[in-house]
Amino acid sequence: MKTTDKHDERMANMTFASVYPHYITKVEKKGRTQEELHQVITWLTGFQNEDIQRLIEEKVTFKEFFDQATLHPNAPLIKGVICGYRVEEIENPLTQQVRYLDKLVDELAKGKKLEKILRQS
C-alpha cells in the first residue's frame, strides 16, 4: 500500500515520547498493563525497560527509535489493518515498522493473548 511522502515524513519525525502515553492509556483502559506493553515493545524492537525509558527521555523520533532497534525476525508476520493501512502492504520500511508497533499495541488493547501477539504460536 502506498503512503504519501508527507505521511512517511510525519511518521519519521514524530517522537516516541509523544506517542508512548497514548499507548499506555489505550492498553490500561482495556485492563492491560504497562508491563505487558513493554513486553510487546521489547519483542518487536529488542529494547529493555531501561532502553525504553532512555528513548522517552531523549525524545527520539521514530526514525531514531527504529534505527536503534533490532527488529524481531517474526515482525513480518504482523498483518492486518491499522489506521486504514494494511501493514503488510506498506512500502516505506520505517512507516511499516511504526505501524507494526501500532498493530501490536492494538492487539494488546483488544485482549489478544500475549503468545499470539508475540507470534509464538
From TrEMBL:
Pfam families: DUF2200. InterPro entries: SP1917_dom_sf (IPR023204), UCP033199 (IPR014580). This is DUF2200 domain-containing protein. It comes from Echinicola rosea.
